[in-house]
Amino acid sequence: MPVSTRPYMGATAFDGGVTFRAWAPNARAVCVAGEFNQWSKTASPLSSEDNGYWSTDETTAKPGQQYKFVVVNRDSGAELWKNDPYARELTQSNGNSIIAATDTVGDVPGYGTPSWNEAVIYELHVGSFLFDRTFPDPHGTFATLITRLDYLRDLGINVIEIMAAGEFATDFSWGYNQAYMFAIEHAYGGPNGFRDLVREAHKRGIAVLFDVVYNHIGPEDCDLWQFDGWNENNQGGIYFYNDNRNQTPWGMNRPDYGRNEVRQYLRDNALRWTEQRFVDGLRWDGTGWIRNIFGSNDYPPNDIPDGWSLMQYINNEIRGRQPWKFSIAEDMQQNEWLTRDTDAGGAGFTAQWDAGFVHPVRAVIVPGYDDGRDMGTMQRALELRYNGDAFRRVIYTESHDEDANGSARVPEEIWPGNADSYFSRKRSTLGAALVFTAPGIPMIFQGQEFLEDRYFRDDVELDWSKAVRNAGIVDLYRDLIRLRRNWFNNTRGLRGQGMHLHHRNDADKLIAFHRWDQGGPGDDVVVVANFANRSYDSYSIGFPREGLWWVRFNSDYAGYSPDFGNRRGYDTVAGPGGRDAMPCSGNIGIGPYSVLILSQ
Questions:
Q1: C-beta of residue 120 within 8 angstroms of C-beta of residue 485
Q2: What is the DSSP secondary structure assignment for residue 456, as one 8-state letter?
Q3: Residue 447: phi, psi to the nearest 5?
Q4: Where does the pLDDT of residue 149 fall: very low under 50, low under 70, confident under 90, or very high at 90 and above?
Q5: What CATH code is carried by the domain that includes residue 74?
């Protein structure tokens, strides 16, 4: 049969059949077997394109049918039945590929991706977010997630980040052991379910970020391993490094970033999500393991230059084609080069998860004794930025990594076994208030807004009863998010670049900082944070301008929790007489472990 003249890899339906194309440079022959030819391993041969690729147009095939490639190794003659590396749908990770109908989402009229300085991210895991209890083994799906989109919209969330959902082994997983990165996990609802999720999120003005895993593939149920029968050193074959560069914490399965066909495979995957599935950006898992054999930040002999150039290549493609979309690195090593432009030698990411915020902030708010709370540590965490840009970092106190791997959620860390305690509620919400008032892109993790206390597990559903029991804390998060997004046109500075920590009381554990965008009434914001178990009726700090300053938020408000002290966070008049290197000064009242947000 002649080679196909149609583009694209994998199985692509057209009017009258399906184009099949696979990369197998060490094959003697490649056929496609499936329901359309009674699983014959000879009836539908692919023809060599003389460049390692094989293709055919099969007129008996149609969407919905199952198939596999039958690859015959050139040297050994071994016959290998393999799932399609580009399969967009599988029956399950160790099952068969499915010819997918189009899963293109399409535009939602009037929708636009939020700008970087307006984004508020909610990280979630589909499988544990909200269970569908009609399944024998209940788990979450895209459909159950859709039923909570109104809740997230009303909370003020305008970006959801979906933890990795490429087809993975078993039905319960964090998702980072994906076996097929083009397929969408069948247990979550497959490509049709994901299409519905993106469309419904966009209808509500909510962007969708998707986690991609390019630092390793598999290891379980991974037919890319020795795909066409070739390997060196008994390693992974054409899709993987076959020398010491293959080592990762998840097996000997690092993709070969130096091989053009593998680079194209990963690039095609990134654009599949951003252009055909219409996600608003990607969060890259573990980029340290793409650029260095051992994920190191400072040992060049183990660097992988091809991994660095791969990140540049894909980020250039995204930025060149859709510059408004996000590309976020999870590297956790505070490497400024990740968010530097590729023209300057950087990797070209929009932003990176910031270890320089989450770890110091948790270290300050978790311990039980006030004496050890270091305000210098807090100042550095608040002021940190990459490449001179506040929005090159994603800031948070909870994520799936921070709330597992031997750790727990912040309320539980504060008082193990008593996460509902006054101190757990006060200091966890103190941390949350810093997330929404510090310069950066704020993110919270699923259930954080209602004080979910258990460590993150992929097989345990969020305790949604806490959203009712802790409704006041949900309101606190809602109020913070709305102020961060300047819903009332009086806190624009929280979306700006400006940051000056002008008051730091190391002895009494209290700080105040000024946030601004352009400056002026409705823009300038003053944030006061008290890290001690004491309150003040009258405490003097500097203000950037004279006049009345309104308290827009007081985390000690008893409406958030009945046992909060409702200490007076009164509106104040700033008058002449400079203080804290500010031209004016005024008095504030503040409760223990509390935050005030003031503006004019």
A1: yes
A2: P
A3: 85, -10
A4: very high
A5: 2.60.40.10
